[in-house]
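hey so i finally got around to running the thing on that chain from the lab meeting. sorry it took forever, my laptop kept dying and i had to restart like 3 times. anyway pasting the input first so we r on the same page abt which one it is
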Amino acid sequence: MLGIFDSRGIALVVEHVAGARPGTDLSDEIARAVEPADLRIALHRLRGADASIERLSALVASRGRSRAADHYPRLEDMAGYGPALEWGLAVAADLAAYARGDLPWSACERGALLAAAPGSGKTLFAGLLARRAGVPLVAGSLAQWQSAGEGHLGTTLKSMRVFFEDAGKAAPCVALIDELDAFGDRRTFAYQHRDYSSQVVNGLLECLDGSCTRPSVLLIGASNLPDRIDPAILRSGRFDRRIDIPLPSSLDLAAILRHHLGSDLATEDLGHAARLAMGGTGADCAAWVRRARGRARRAGRDIAIGDLLLKIGQPAGERSDAADRRIALHEAGHAVVAHCLSHEIHELSIPGPAARMTAYANIDLLDAGGTRVEFEDMLTMLFGGRAAETIVLGQPSAGAAGDLAVATKLATRMHVCWGLGSGLASTETPAGASWPKIPSPIEAELRAGYDRACAFLMRHRGRLEQLADALLVRRHLGMNEIASILADAGDLASDRVDRKRADRNSPRRGQ
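ok and heres what got predicted. didnt touch it at all, straight out
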């Protein structure tokens, strides 16, 4: 198809619709790929000139009709997405089949929530899924809708409806709502903002139920804080499922670094760089590669592996040897307790100070459908780090705060939601809700988990310190290396038999 537009002509159309000339024009290459239907979808007075141009460019690129998008990776080649990748490939195939008329919409999924740390590539994932399916991507967020006009309730709701109407016009398409947690949870709204915020959530629910759009729109939500989202938003028929994207493994990080390096360092083994990067995200990898290239460029030479290693491990603030030892003991504590409870430990790592996390223990944990005994084991593993610090160094640090938060949430759900405590009553707790004082049964559950972890580690203190010392030296330990160090630490057959017997008689969540 021959292009009928050029960049100047599109700028004039945008100015006519939005009332202002865009600050940046499309390239002629992208402009030639624009079709009249694209203008109807992308341009709107409330969106503004610059945002309309951005939407138009994204619409053309996601459809794959512009050679300017050829440098984007394929969804199937992406590393670090875990279960989201399998889901995305399946949904993209269904969406493409629907677009061809080979599959009814009733057989397709309606959408999903992607939950992951910042920089994990949730927005990129949605774009690549759309490109894989050969359909447009329509993207928006509450912040974008509130920025239209003066941010009054009516303007925000109108902008939201425009987004869903655009998605309906572009169908079949992928519609991405970024930062979905920005809507919040109606059960936790402060009194002074409750009316406004509740009406925004209600407006979203109305749009999600189809009053503003039509079938053949795959909805994807993205969030860094999924527990803050109103449960009504996430129910089946709106966002059918929640998919948690884990932090990349060392193998994933090596693949991500390789992607961003392109032909640079083609003969180098990136294993050490990946291990140093443990705890980082895809966005971190891209930033490290950019900085490494910049260092080489300023030196007037090609990039070397040392540039990359330096930028990954470049300290934001020096970490002492004592701090590194505490981190190693903490992670080794998780691993020893997991081993004693017959759980698989995939890898341990202490990354460079530039990485987001201070340490990383990849342990095969349980899903949320387990028994009381299984959840007790999970609590015990979560306390392994704090227990190790206390036993060897005499006192814990604040580094266990994340473990404590997860353990508290788990113990609370055992007693309050799942009927796995002393009572059978079940009450769902609002996202972000907390008690000024933790109820005594929950505190007792946490204390029991901590005491079990301490008992395991006191019995195997020698193996704990041996594993921590090895981690300090090598900075990364794989499954086989961990297993060789802990070969004798799991000699707890009688304990495991007793726990298995208890597990058979233990109620399971949902019963």
